Every structure is written in C-alpha cells, then in structure tokens.
Amino acid sequence: MPERWDGEHDIETPYGLLHVVIQGSPKGNRPAILTYHDVGLNYKLCFNTFFNYEDMQEITKHFVVCHVDALGQQAGASQFPQGYQYPSMDQLAAMLPSVVQHFGFKYVIGIGVGAGAYVLAKFALIFPDLVEGLVLMNIDPNGKGWIDWAAAKLSGLISTLLDTVLSHLFSQEELMNNTELVQSYRQQISSVVNQFNLQLFLNMYNSRRDLDINRPGTVPNAKTLRCPVMLVVGDNAPAEEGVVECNSKLDPTNTTFLKMADSGGLPQVTQPGKLTEAFKYFLQGMGYMPSASMTRLAHSRTASLTSTSMVDGTHPRACTHSESTEAMGQINHTMEISC
Known about the structure:
By secondary structure, the chain is α/β, with parallel strands linked by helices. 37% of the residues lie in helices and 21% in strands. An 11-stranded mixed beta sheet has the order 1-2-4-3-5-6-7-8-11-9-10, sandwiched between helices. Helix 11 links the parallel strand 7 and strand 8 (255-260).
C-alpha cells in the first residue's frame, strides 16, 4: 500500500516500469476504476475531458480512479533504445496485476478505449477474479489477417505515423472536415507522445491476435468475459464494425451495447454527458450508487429499449422500457441503445 494516493506513481512490473496516476483514495471495499487509453494517446489525451466533466464528479467521489499509461506513452517518457522489444498485448495485460497489488485493490472496473479496451479485455480473460466490470469503447476483438497486415504495411510506407493514428482514432467525416478536435489532437499527439515509442505500441497493437472469445452455447467450452460489460461506439466511428462483432461474441445476459449518435471516433471526448449517464446506469446495475440522479440521458432522447433481464436469479424475461430508463439500475440487463 502506498504512503500517498493522489498523483503519479511508477510501478514495477515483469515487463517494465508502468506510469500510473491516481485520483482520490479507496472508498471502503469498492473497486477502483482503472482506465487504459488508445494508441496515439495517453491517459490525459484520452480521458481528461470525460473525467473532468461536471456530472462525472458524482461518480468519482465514490471511487478511487487509477489511470494507466501504456509503456512509454506518458508525457515526457524517455525514448526506448533501438532494438527494444515492446511487450505484446498479452504482456501489457499481464502488467496490470502488479498495479492492482501495489495499491491493494481487491478488484477493478475497467474503462478502455481501442487498444486499451483490448488490453483490459485480455486482462479480464486472464485474471477474471480481479475485474468486476468493463466499459469497452471502440474495441476490435479481431487480429489482423495477412491482407490487413499487408495493407497496414503499405499504408505505413505512404502515410505518416500521425496520419495512421488519426485514421484509427477519427471517422473519415471528421478527418475530411478537419475539425478543430482533429487539429487539436494532431498537434498534441505529435508534441506530447514520443513518436518512436508510439510506433512500437502501434506495431504491437497491429500484431495482436484474436481475443478468442465466443458467446456461450455457440461452440463447445466457449470462453468469454464473465463480468458485466458495456460496449460503446460512435455511430460513425472507424471501430463500429469491430464493436458490433464483439457484441455478438459476449454473453447477452450481462452485456450492454451503446451506440452513440453524433459522437465520431472519440465518444468520451465529444459526448461526455451521455457517456457519463450511461456509466451511471452501468454502475447502478452492478449495485453501486443507487441514489444517483438519472435524468439527462432519459430526457435527452425518446428511448425504446428491449432488454433481457435476470431478476433475483430467476430465468431471463423480456421487458421493454420506453421514454424512461429509471429501472435499468436495478437489474442485470442486455440492451442496445442508440442515443
């Protein structure tokens, strides 16, 4: 257990020194919220807008938050030497128990984006007892095939690293319009993140294998995520196809699929209010924050949600919520939402 909580920490792991930032302190036996960012970003670029959002403070006052920077991706990181072997995605996931043990967390609720979502899903598959829930944004459960690999190699020859990363993070519409958000991230990624280290992380992410998950009952001895999962993607995001496929491979009794309108490739940046509200529902479904106010998402749209619910251990039953979703926090549910 550390002598201090808030602030920056460097944690020794089997595969290198991991930069971690803690916000708050443990709240009783509640899990920590652990975040993991996408390729091209670090915890600040990926999550600051979301965690600084006013309504998010209602959540963070109840939980300690642990932001993890992927190896060598934090601001001011030293450049790795030539020939350095960057950890595989499995090894990046295997670094996380060292963080959990260092701070004495019993378990975590993970929030990951893109590559970070893949790492957290791997973490939950390898160490299921350490993960109580997952919010996975822009996750792609598939490894790259030979054609994809060759296309990525060719793209790397004709595109800059920065352009490759931006096309991973943003929709084509956002890139073509060259929005202020894209311009801001272009400048920050090029100046804040060490480009050599970023290339190593990107290469390893592009070399990932399939997550090897299947919906229970579809194949013998199917392996999937055991904890509650909320999948999130923008309706115009480059990751949409991958997230839809991931949804098809998860247990429908504990999975929520949230497709966000007008949010592009970074829903946690462009739609922090809607995402905060959805995250509150997710936490309520796990038994936390029962008294939290739930108004903005329900009133900002006309919702028609079909969910499969399991109440008090009985068999699943179908139920429909229209206009209001106040009951969602009291049940485990599977649903698809467009908002």
